[in-house]
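pasting for ref
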Amino acid sequence: MRLYTTAPSGATLVQNTFIDHYMLQANGEYVKVYLYLLRCAGGNMELTLSSVADALEYTEKDLRRALAYWEKVNLLQMNCSPDGTIQDITFGDPAVLEAAPASASVVSEGPRDAGRPQVPNRDRMDALRENADIRQLFFVAEQYLQRPLSSSEQEDLLYYYDSLHFSADLIEYLLEYCISKGSSSRHYMRKVALAWAEAGITTVSQAREETNLYNKNYFSIMNAFGIKGRNPAAPEIKTMSYWLNELGYSLDIILEACRRTILQTHQPNFQYANKILELWKKQGVRSSADIVALDKKHLAEQKDKQKQPRPKTENNNRFNNFNQREYDYSQLERRLLNS
């Protein structure tokens, strides 16, 4: 498999367009594959699918999925033989494709991404900037952020308005909500916006209801850990959002993982609970009934192990062949104390 790029050798060139319009929207594992291949292309290296998979510690299936994603958004083109073997890969130029980059979900990767709205092209963005509502929206955003908007931030707001069909009021509430959570990051804001779009939220009242629901879920999880009297910290919110949104678990399953965490560790431990939930995900748990079935299966396996006879081993230690003396250690202790 050969890789072809027009970038100069001796350096791995990552264009700003890739970072602004592609990287933030893609699965992190896909980005890792893209950057590694870009570096290999600069070194004119001969590769195989298995060697790349080994280097990244991925399966070949995972690697093919990442390559298919980047081919779908036109950032690379694969040339395959009739049997499906990848013969060469040619990288596209993100700057050339900037006018109409594909927009995949940052909340989750999968078949649903095919229906994602496209980022407005350059001419459309220039036209929108002349809109009075948009100019007012930019002004409000700058008041929230307490600084001028960057061109990338302006493009994000135009994307929410034109592609996600958010009203100006809804975008203002999006700004208010994200900043109230202590984050003005473009990545976080886009993630929230795409989650709202996926949930069919089109009004401020719907958004308020959604955010209140998640707040209730967060505090229910905190209470299950015995954490009261404070708001969740940003890393805790990120972890709980991962459980609710990306793993897709209902509150009752998450609370059960928290209960088991407390039983095992005797303290709130988000990492331990996360391991439980990720293990359940791998085991196909979708409901509380699935957890009960797993518990029964585990219990049956433990009973089967206990029923198996243990092999007898002879102890050839000559010391142990002597009859061992039995001492009353309480009596010996009293003698020592009285002496």
